Amino acid sequence: MEKLQFTVLEGELSIHRLPASAPVPDEVFTATFYSITRTSEELSIVCPEDININGARTEKGWSCIKIIGPLEFSQTGVLAALSTSLARAGIAIFVISTFDTDYILVKSRFLTAAIEQLAAAGYDLLEE
Question: What pLDDT, on a 0 to 100 scale, did the predictor assign at position 75?
Fold first, then answer.
C-alpha cells in the first residue's frame, strides 16, 4: 500500500441519530461538510456542532481526519491499517466513506494523540 496522507478538517462535529422516517433539517444542507445516512432502522447525520437537531440522540465533540484521495476501489486494507493504528492507542473512531476517500472522526480530546499515532505509523499530515 502506498504511503497515505491526511489532513484535519476545521471545527467540531456532532453525530445525530433520529428515527428512520425523520426529515433532514434544512440547516444541515448549509454546512460545508455533512453526511446523511438513512437506513430502515435510523437516520444518522454528521454535521457541524453548532447545528442543533431537535429530537435527536446527539454525540458532540468530534474532529475529522480526512484521508487524502482519491483512493482506488481496488486498494485494500486502508481503513484496517488506520483503525488498527488508532485502536492500539485506545482511540475509538467513527468512519464516513465517500466515492473518493475516507473520513475518520475521533473525539476532539483525542485528536492530538490520533495525529501523533498516525504520524508514528508512517502517515503524513498535510497542513491546509
Answer: 65
Q: For position 118, which CATH number holds?
A: 3.30.2130.10
The amino acid at 56: A
Rg (CA), the chain: 15
pLDDT at 72: 72
Q: Are 20 and 40 in contact (CB under 8 A)?
A: yes
pTM of the prediction? 0.90
Closest CA to 103 of 75, 127, 128, 82: 82
> Which domain range does residue 76 map to?
5-125
Residue 3 cell numbers, joined? 504511503
Length of the chain in terms of residues written: 128
Would you state the cell numbers that stand for residue 37, as one nine-digit string? 445516512
CA–centroid distance for 52 within its chain = 18
Total domains in the chain come to 1
45 exposed, middle or buried (CB, 10 Å; 0-12, 13-18, 19+)?
A: buried
pLDDT tens profile 48-85: 999 999 988 999 999 999 987 867 766 666 788 899 99
